[in-house]
Specification:
about 130 residues; mainly alpha; 5 helices
Length: about 130
């Protein structure tokens, strides 16, 4: 991913930023759309793994930049954390929601899904029970 052409971290309007379970669905939709439109879903679904470190002879400086939509970015580009930044910077209070900003984008995303979509399953069960 050439840094000169790297995508900007999308900033959602305040009403679309994640506050809690009440606006999880619109937030999820916006983040997934933004990440998909940049061709970076592999960071959310974990299919773009962390590259290893390479000695200079094996990984020459001419290859330090990779194409924008590369599935095999160099370590520096992978660590730029564009997708993790998009997820976390669009949460009103990441600490309050228990988001660990040091994790990989896919780990942060899975933690959010586990937290908010499990509650959706509970709501469905309660609604079915009340019928």
């Amino acid at each position: 991913m050439l840094f000169g052409n790297s995508p900007n971290i999308p900033r959602l309007p305040d009403k679309r930023q994640l506050v809690g379970e009440d606006n999880w669905r619109p937030y999820k939709h916006e983040i997934l759309f933004a990440v998909q439109s940049k061709g970076l879903m592999g960071y959310i679904d974990g299919t773009i793994p962390r590259p290893g470190t390479y000695p200079g002879q094996i990984y020459p400086p001419a290859q330090l930049q990779t194409p924008l939509f590369s599935l095999t970015p160099c370590l520096e580009e992978w660590e730029a954390r564009l997708v993790a930044g998009a997820i976390v910077s669009n949460i009103t209070d990441p600490v309050g929601l228990g988001v660990d900003e040091t994790k990989r984008a896919s780990d942060i995303w899975q933690a959010l899904i586990k937290r908010f979509e499990k509650r959706d399953e509970q709501r469905i069960h309660l609604a079915d029970t009340n019928l």
